[in-house]
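Q: I have 117 residues here and want to know how they pack in 3D. Can you give me a structure?
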Amino acid sequence: MKILIILNERPAADEKAYNAIRIAAQIQKDDSANQVFIYLIADGVYCALANAEGMKGTLNVEEMLSGVVQSGGTVKMCTSCGESRELINKQLIKGAEWTNLKTLTDWIAECDKVINY
């Protein structure tokens, strides 16, 4: 099954980013045939920064998202959202890529399930 998670929140804002990434990891664990796609948009682009800080008391968002990528997940981010936040030249986790909105609309059409945080 192809599952898309759209993440709009920065990791330190609340627990939404943390929970979205936890769900992505669990989906991968539940069935190795599951394909997980994560699209970071709006403040969600902060989740892919190296040294991204999550909420106090939660696991490290950077490590969790890196684990999803290492397990075969795909992470892409809205370039215009990154540009408006002056993040384009910042260091990202390995495997995360800047892209355009066309990627998101293609994924929405292709995926079996879409989860929005």
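Q: Anything worth noting?
A: Helices lie at 16-30, 61-70, 79-84, 101-110. The chain has one domain: 2-116.
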